[in-house]
């Protein structure tokens, strides 16, 4: 009798727990589990979005990895952006955060100035940058030439297109700056005072006091930065289109990654394959590669977290 | 309690099943609506310039006058990307009738079933497409017997030239062969430091309409052999086309210099187009450029001619590349009979076709409209009508994956013109293999 009551109590408790969890569970099932499973399913199918899918085996996978000419350039570009752009954004965001927390007068003005670009819509911001960095008519190159410096081709030069995108990303650093400022203001003052009494230099105070205290925030910035960069789509697409001069119209073709595939990213391939070529199967393969890469990067970074000298750990 | 769990599992399974079917829903065949009843259909088109959208509105007004029970909601400035997505999703806001600027996607539209086969509609209406449309247009609107599109005005490509600059350079008339063209382009080029005061011709594939297929039409290439394999490496026309373009690039200043100059020029659809402004003296373009150039009121006299031909094909001078706007009915439409009434009116009613062609400065797309006395045009426009009627004029064939093969050729063109690829023969062979692989993947 007691056991029955206990069992039924446990069942009831489990159900109550499930009931409380159900909003999340339903969300997880509908918005994550089902799309993921169907993406895996469609990656083995020939499906154009209109006719019933047919079994294709590993053909989509071999096509993407072996025969689709844009896959490897896009992967290389995406990894370049993940490594360079994310690192620079974190360093630059932290640097700006540090500077602004040190400013005694006018900090509000600088905070606003650095945060405002983040609010600019990505399409408008990219078009503005394409205008500013235009090698023929842009003011940036005109100034560089006027002072006798070499003027890069920026979005028109394959060697400079990714650095130009990185500049654009650094301009919109406002989100990271705010996060880092909050973290920096949270570092206990007494730790700095103790370090100063021990004769620590400014660099040592940063290295042994600031950095350990804000390392979880650095990790957060890196992980979210990697995931965002994996989904980097709008800016390279707009920059490439504007710089190439190709406005879609009669007789114009999809031209990925102008110039010379240097701004091609994996999300652009998902769009090209799925929505332009009607090849959902191959688009799903690229989407799964993106998912796997994001997971791998995140897992790697979370493991590295153990190596960080965490305050309070 | 197990009952509750079972019911929950059932509900979840049902939800998932619903989701699954929602994502893999099939378009209905839908041609069972009554076109004589009061209805509203959606029409999406690609025109965007104010003069063009006004012309479309006039065309639709004419249709609504003759079909008072069918109302048309028009959406302008729709690219192929937007059309592609709408054709798959369907719904009350999705288009019943679409029109696209390019014939490149006809094969994809037909093979995927995105647009319905119009043959039954033509039969039902007693219209014979073979005797209604010019031969080339009749061909590029179908794929493997499936006529899922219909020509809605045509485009012919020719050469625009600055007559005033020609006189200044001592050139008496437009070039008829590529070697004459080459010499004229050099004569017309006036350097200015590391740029140009005037460029004879912008040969780069990014030079607006100077795409590979528009150049190569003058060489009468065969894109696919009888087995459906790419003939890019087999047909010498392609190598000749690539070689000519590369020679022009090198002789007119080199790729980097030209690209830098190009980055300073106005866009294709704006009033600052470099031909309008006199920055480029010759321009490969479609018939619509004449109206746009005249509207921009340039400071020089505009000349129009067919594009030059290879020296060994001098007798074929007068031909050009032909393509056109196409119209079709969405497979997801539940009002296909009403949609057909609009398509039929826009594409086969002689007065409607002539009126639209007059308004939009395009080539009419029916044989009757081409002969109509109501067709009014600038005498220079006659050049494009002649190009459209020229038996040597060519178009690009439809392919199962749409214009992917043309993008692949164009992509190789970018690599070749910039010097990234130096071995033309090997490059053509590699590109042909890529085209075949892409087609096999799409089947």
From TrEMBL, chain A:
Which keywords accompany this UniProt record? Cell membrane, Membrane, Transmembrane, Transmembrane helix, Transport
Domain ABC transmembrane type-1 residues, every copy: 75-301
* Family matches, as Gene3D superfamilies: MetI-like (1.10.3720.10)
Q: Which PROSITE patterns match?
A: ABC_TM1
Q: Where in the cell is it found?
A: Cell membrane
Name the major location: membrane
Query: Membrane-crossing residues?
Result: 12-37, 79-101, 113-133, 164-185, 206-227, 280-301
Keyword match Transmembrane: yes
Q: Does the keyword Transmembrane apply?
A: yes
Q: Which SUPFAM superfamilies match?
A: MalF N-terminal region-like (SSF160964), MetI-like (SSF161098)
| Membrane topology, record value | Multi-pass membrane protein
Task: State the Gene Ontology BP annotations.
Answer: transmembrane transport
Q: Out of the domains of life, which is the source?
A: Bacteria
Q: Name one Pfam family in it.
A: BPD_transp_1
Its Gene Ontology cellular component terms are: plasma membrane
Similarity field: Belongs to the binding-protein-dependent transport system permease family.
Q: What is the protein name stated in its UniProt record? A: Sugar ABC transporter permease
UniProtKB/TrEMBL annotation, chain B:
Q: Which CDD domains match?
A: PBP2_UgpB
Residue ranges annotated as transmembrane are: none
Signal peptide position in this chain? 1-22
What Gene Ontology cellular-component terms does the record carry?
A: cell envelope
Pfam (any one): SBP_bac_1
Q: Where in the cell is it found?
A: Cell envelope
Keywords of the record, alphabetical order, are: Signal, Transport
- InterPro entries in UniProt: Bact_solute-bd_prot1 (IPR050490), SBP (IPR006059)
* Keyword Signal annotated: yes
Q: Does the keyword Signal apply?
A: yes
Domain of life, source organism: Bacteria
Please classify the protein's predominant subcellular localization into one broad category: other
PANTHER family with a match to the protein in the record: ARABINOSE-BINDING PROTEIN-RELATED, BINDING PROTEIN COMPONENT OF ABC SUGAR TRANSPORTER-RELATED
Q: What is its biological role?
A: Part of a binding-protein-dependent transport system for a sugar.
Member of which family?
Answer: Belongs to the bacterial solute-binding protein 1 family.
- Its recorded name reads Probable sugar-binding periplasmic protein
Q: Which organism is it from?
A: Streptomyces nodosus
